[in-house]
Structures
1.
Amino acid sequence: MAKIVAENVKAHPALFEEEVQMWVYEEEVTIDEKSRHYDPNSPLCQGPQKLSALFNEIHENIKYLPGITLPKNVIANPSLVDAARDATLLVFVIPHQFISRICDTLQGNILPYARGISCTKGVDVSDKGIQLFSESIGARLGIYCGALSGANIATEIAQEKYSETTVAYDPPPVDSRQPSPAHSPSQSQVDLVAPNAEESKHKAVLKPLPIEYPALSHENVKKLFHRPYFHVRMVSDVAGVSLGGALKNVVALAAGFMDGLGWGDNAKAAVMRVGLLEMVKFGKHFFSASCRAQTFTEESCGMADVVTSCMGGRNFRCAKMAVERGMKIEEVEQQELNGQKLQGTSTAYEVHSYLKGQGMEHEFPLFTAVYNILEGKTKPEEIPELIEPKD
Amino acid sequence: MAKIVAENVKAHPALFEEEVQMWVYEEEVTIDEKSRHYDPNSPLCQGPQKLSALFNEIHENIKYLPGITLPKNVIANPSLVDAARDATLLVFVIPHQFISRICDTLQGNILPYARGISCTKGVDVSDKGIQLFSESIGARLGIYCGALSGANIATEIAQEKYSETTVAYDPPPVDSRQPSPAHSPSQSQVDLVAPNAEESKHKAVLKPLPIEYPALSHENVKKLFHRPYFHVRMVSDVAGVSLGGALKNVVALAAGFMDGLGWGDNAKAAVMRVGLLEMVKFGKHFFSASCRAQTFTEESCGMADVVTSCMGGRNFRCAKMAVERGMKIEEVEQQELNGQKLQGTSTAYEVHSYLKGQGMEHEFPLFTAVYNILEGKTKPEEIPELIEPKD
């Protein structure tokens, strides 16, 4: 994501500042002797280095994205507060379990009229109900936060292999008041139209900017993310985009169960289709105002991401192995993922917990079947009967 | 299809007659010594047998669906006219190149109030324009003809592996006149409501039936095709169902080109999504009155069939090989299919010829790119640029 944004801010100098500040969680790394960066005479190779400092020397994250050179205008910064200071656009590309802590750190340290885009997929289910991560971020920071999701495997994008994504951005109506440092941040104060909108610059990160701040249009958000190898479609349905990325993993488990049974491509395509329609139903039922069926059925964050996830994603593969080997999925996680947990199983449990609370398990027979299979209460072979339409 | 229909007519004796007449093109077959049916003392194994007679003895089509026992109420009949005589429901499961000849034979030899369901996918492009095969059948026979299409690989269905399908059936408004043998067949005379609708029987094939003839509801059509392992969704969009099965093969070629380049699952899912939306656009533009986006994006005949075809169908595999081996697709057809032609290539040419005639090539950049790749005018690598949205 840093690569894409950095390429785009360079391509649109009238619109964005050139530097992209990238917060990295600091750690020590060592350049391996087999690395193309290894040079016994280089000071970088005399023992452990700070990840951020090394990145700013060689423009590569040797630990998390080895082999990919990032543009020089991406600056790694180990200080979250410093990286985000004065940024008008914050792009969140973090595992969901860190959102809460990161927002705590950012609170009070960002521009009140900053905007967020969450690339973290999924929903947060608690006693209080169900919340999108984009909503959690927005609420905690008092800013508007959109979402980006699609059939996007990071390493393929880094290699500039063609893909698509969906960006949802739909801030509340423009408020024409001027922002001032005294403003307490709130969504309605964020979108300010400036007379010199064309000349003002959005910044992907850092440094002071004019107090007059242009509204951020779909067109300009698109310019931050769209590349010849990474096609962006803009929508307004933040809920649909956020949900697609989470719920598709539950569908991928179901598809894996089918494939594990050796039932062939017809069966797999059938549960993908049924799953996609349960995703639509879930969105429309629980996020009705904003959620559109087409976000799931026509966009990269929906249908295309379901397809990718059911072709070879981790959830799909582990579910398939579980059936083939007659094992519980936790055992497969142990064997295949070093005990790392699948996103699909936790989402299946969260979705089920929410549906049960709403008394709506039977309205979502595939999601419920996946939960019951994970719980050992249902067999994969029963899926067709369970999802058979009753009309 | 005969298996499914035969199981269902037995399950609904109040609605359907028990016997299913299946026309087979007569040929001579010999039971192989390795066959489970081989018995040196059996008269069936003393040289070549007629396919129809052998089928009626052993209830298996040893040439075209070996290993699958069909229900005893399927009767193979080498006479097309005899098989269709007095049938009120005609199910067409034939390669499209035979439709014309078969309709010539049936003309004047079927009940004027018979109904058809076409399982033959695709469209017929000629100087006169574009016509669905269901429309061709209906027009030639003077009957109403619906369509069945879905992610349905025949051998998987025969083995009762779970799958889904879509049946489109939407006859013109009911005409309450009584049919009489003197009626010239026309669509408006077909749908006749009988007072004893519940008691009258639809016949899948053969034998006289009451002159009072009930309208055929979605519910009853569904009963003819729905099985626990073959889930049917009924829709009214005959154009969408017919087009889905044809156009998906063009999309499968595009997906194969991506995979052949080694561009990964993101790229493949992206062209599948773009292709699905071009299918929607094609349907809505050229069959606007009846065609619904959801038929493509939400039904088995659309999204699910695209998925199956792009996972491992012949069109996908041959397109992939063509790129990998640097060959023309005709050469791959020669090598891999013994010179048999792919459905996707002929559909791509037909679709292109129609779009060109309409001056609309640029409105369908993926379909056009596939055609140009087949023609050697475009390289697969150019697809992303060609389908990049211009907005």
Note: Chain B touches chain A through 48 residues (CB under 8 Å).
2.
Amino acid sequence: MFNDFKLTDNRPVYIQLKDYFKKMIMKGHLLEDQKLPSTRELSKLLSVSRNTVLTAYADLEQEGLIYAIKGKGNFVGKVDVSKTPSIKLDWKEKVNTATLLADELDLMKHGVRWEKGMISFNSIAPDEKLFDMENFKRAFLTRMSIEGDIVLNYGYAKGYKPLINYLLHYMEMKGIDISNKDILITNGFTEGLDILLSSLTKKSGRIICENPTHHTALKLFRLHGLEVHGIDMKDDGIDIDQVEKSLSQADFDFAYLIPSYHNPTGIVTSSEKRTKIMKLFSKYQIPIIEDGFNEELRYSGSHLAPLLTFAGSGNNVIYISSFSKILFPGLRVGWILADKELIHWLESMKRARTIHTSTLDQAVLFQYLHDGYFEKYLKKAKAVYKKKYELSLQACNQYIPLKRITGDGGLHLFIELEKEINTRTLLKKCYEKGVVFSPGDVFYTDGRGGNTFRLGFSRLNEEDIIQGIRIIGDTLNEELEK
Amino acid sequence: MFNDFKLTDNRPVYIQLKDYFKKMIMKGHLLEDQKLPSTRELSKLLSVSRNTVLTAYADLEQEGLIYAIKGKGNFVGKVDVSKTPSIKLDWKEKVNTATLLADELDLMKHGVRWEKGMISFNSIAPDEKLFDMENFKRAFLTRMSIEGDIVLNYGYAKGYKPLINYLLHYMEMKGIDISNKDILITNGFTEGLDILLSSLTKKSGRIICENPTHHTALKLFRLHGLEVHGIDMKDDGIDIDQVEKSLSQADFDFAYLIPSYHNPTGIVTSSEKRTKIMKLFSKYQIPIIEDGFNEELRYSGSHLAPLLTFAGSGNNVIYISSFSKILFPGLRVGWILADKELIHWLESMKRARTIHTSTLDQAVLFQYLHDGYFEKYLKKAKAVYKKKYELSLQACNQYIPLKRITGDGGLHLFIELEKEINTRTLLKKCYEKGVVFSPGDVFYTDGRGGNTFRLGFSRLNEEDIIQGIRIIGDTLNEELEK
């Protein structure tokens, strides 16, 4: 007996020994009141130190699995392992329709899978080769030494105060009037939007947004049962005449807009259009959720302020963003900047749903920002991404027989082909040649976009970018020749 | 001009200089096409290095706020700061009833506030003085050096694979049949429960649970519009006869149970009752959400397996837990252990709502667990908490004229006073004497519990525990004498 004990990994030996006994007891291989070998015997038998056995036995006793009798030794305790009759529920039948819809709209499950060695234009996540690990570690150690006990304990639902203050200042530098504003820190952009939808969905159940739009947002709109009213994109942003027409005809709970590096088209809404948008939505008293997505990734052109800047002291714009797409997506930190009163209401929603966002994530991010590493990193990253952007743009124009290409910066381009082309069919052919991209229809509110696709270039090297785009172009040309 | 520039904090100087110019431009103090001082002039004027000015100017140019003309210098760019007419929405009117309810049920907003210097029995969070900072730092640095790029980039909705595997093993050691199970990592227990409610609330809209029960769970039940059916607690757990009667009379979407260190009563459900519970709910095919809350904090007594262990290969128990209450609440990591099929459905809900839980939090927690620091920490913490527990129990019995006291371990005790005593009135008096606790009514599903309260002792030192309990007792005696 006990000679089947084996060290299986590099965890402490006493823990592995404890686990071994636990298993034996749980499975009924050791019976109640059965005497265990003495620590001396076992240590010899298993060639482990006696201390290891002592610690393991002490832990087992602590957990009530064994008991000791002075002078007599250790014995197996009473462990109820009686199993009740096993029943099988049909979970597909037990979960509700929202859950089935979430599964249906889950691109990670149903989208085209990227495989090793493939050239994938699917991602618009940052290139991990750029990660600034050393300064990140430094920021961690600095913050831990300043207030490690606060970093590791419960925080506030609104967020980690130093980070909130930093972000308020950061946003003020974009010309935003922060005097009547406050910030709620969320688990990335996605939780922020989900909380907003949970709070703002009210009377009409109808929202207005750009068409196409960010597919994660679109998924959430659908999961919240919203009627999504999409408005076409012009080269300088949303079609404002269509917006006016829609607002005059129906009621909307709110608008959702991505003025910079619009996802998926990459279009940057012009300054003139921003003013028009603000005037129009103010007139109809409709709140705007402004998605600040990748606003930092402007490679050229004049300065552009967020819609929230144009709102001045008005309180109808809710700005929501995160640094995830630029900095460290593994840290789930986003924020909502909005009117103080609204943040007051949202705070309770946040607390009810996730208590608060990881203090560790917030604290390290704060230190990293505060110490100026973000500025340095952004400069480096922008230089790399700009090059990839220009390369991608040039290659697309050179190799792909396209009808329209948009994207003024950021980490992706959006391509429209001739009407008769179906990009899902194209994707299938490209997949066979080891190239994948995001078919555009998933971004559309109304099933259109079958002739469009999105190209994310951030995580590819220059060689793969050119080769991938060339393959897409060649495949498309073959199709067109048929 | 420019002599009002001041260094305000310890951020890098060039960033503060950049911010200064940004503000001047945004506020219109510097006008379009206005020439800026040369780098040499400015460096002299502000007594900063010329490099600092060069970097600040370069950044401003990058952001489109200034432009350079070769041989002529730097000029203010075109910045549209036109404000649109300011409008004021009434957010209280714009948010929906769920949001107003979340605010109403928000104990942090409406509960009795703890003030510095007070003896607060409100918290059942861990004592931060016990935090094992050095090993936490070690775990961070180890994990970062192993796979820092993975830690900082996007992860999977289901969770960080090494942590999932660790937890599966950890739960298997509790006698759980993991062969048909899987794990979903969540942002703490709270998100886990919220996702479960979002997915399982279906036909009846009715749930069954212990009465009293965990107030955060109760809040979420109400926010999900569920009809909550509470069952009285006996000293060995839920009143099983009442459960049987309820199940035979109405349909329920699921049960929510806290078998160990039940919150708030601290009662541990006996092994015999666990078997009965399992048989009963299996008979009626009702899923059980088992809250594994603080299961690790058993100070004495024989071993007790989770309900999920009793379920054997059955799939009707959903186990949900976190180490937050023991380890580091600042890290928001919890998990759902359940049937593979159910986890498959929940995964899409998780992805839709928060993409995934912080990889950083998960990775550091994994390393900390893997290296055996958790076991060591738990031993230390248990010794401290056990002492506080025994002290609190003794002091309560000595000083408080109570009717019933429950709590077999964990970090809190629950006290029932004579029917005519209102613990909210008692709290007001105690508050004046610098002592606060949690009035018990917030834990009840049906407005009862006016004569009960919860005492959390984890974060208090021994002296304060005794003094605090004595003050409560004295105050109560004064009231009774009246």
Note: Chain A has a mean pLDDT of 93.
